[in-house]
Amino acid sequence: METMKIASFDRASDLKAFDETKTGVKGLVDAGISQIPRIFHHTSVKLANPKPLSSDLLHLTTIPTIDLGGRVFEDMIKRKNAIEGIKNAAAKWGFFQVINHGVSLHLLEKMKDGVRRFHEQSPQVRKEFYSRDFSRKFLYLSNFDLFSSPAANWRDTFSSNMAPNPPKPEDLPEICRDVMMDYSKQVMNLGKFLFELLSEALGLNPNHLNDMECSKGLLMLCHYYPPCPEPDLTLGTSQHSDNSFLSVLLPDQIEGLQVCREGYWFNVPHVPGALIINIGDLLQLITNDKFISLEHRVLANRATRARVSVACFFTTGIRPNPRLYGPIRELVSEENPPKYRETTIRDYATYFNAKGLDGTSALLHFKI
User: Fold this and answer.
1) Closest CA to 361 of 313, 316, 312, 296
2) Mind telling me which Pfam families this protein's record contains (predicted)?
């Protein structure tokens, strides 16, 4: 018992010491470390890739890519094909990539550049923004669940709630302010369009999900994954599913995202100019499992330069929102009764955040 106490005490003080540097994982890399601190060590079980794919799963090579035709379909057949593709992807993978999505490639590059520039400015400047006060309009930290998760991830993040109440320009750092505002507006427009297609894929009126306010809130997380000296001992992001209705991910060329399907990890390949879309827990809940929110993770970065990504989550999160969400009435029947109890987004987010990224789905807690 005594040794257990010592080990856990050491971990607590190591976490505190790391957090108090206020420079995150980037600070460790800048210090030239060749071994990662023990707080970042994940168990080998969490890092393992299961046995090779069985022959009947070999056709599941990768998540689908869907052409959105610039969000203006020339004819109904193309629109129908896109909806059919989204319906299959949302039901089987919970993930798909979109091309010709209507967000300019120039803006995508500017957004990634803004993330890189913020994280690569001087430690003195970054320290000014570092905080664990989640009520802040702009938050920079390393690992939101640093003190509750079993192991820390090799990643730093800044975030802001961009809707329904966008931050004032002065709330955001000048180095990435304009591009955050521009990009979030574009993602909001894309999200509304995707919710129309998803509504139709469910056999509902195109406005159904937007009328339910699925596209009301937007949380932007801008991740920075520095090169890792011991990538086999840690992860960039632990296995988890998203506590949103829908997530829109802007990746860079460095791969690392993996999706878990039927117990196997699949790499998400780089598709130039594409955005990665995935179904969140809340959409699985309201569709009564018609669409699935699959678990995913990010491997530690083996490249020589930092990997960046921008994840935009359609959710109002822990902000006050009295609306109750349960399985959509039109999607349930005697043969297919509701599988989840009603919840507010805030209650779901609070439970999810308290649990941390521990590799289990928060949806289990809301099952009937």
Assistant:
1) 296
2) 2OG-FeII_Oxy, DIOX_N
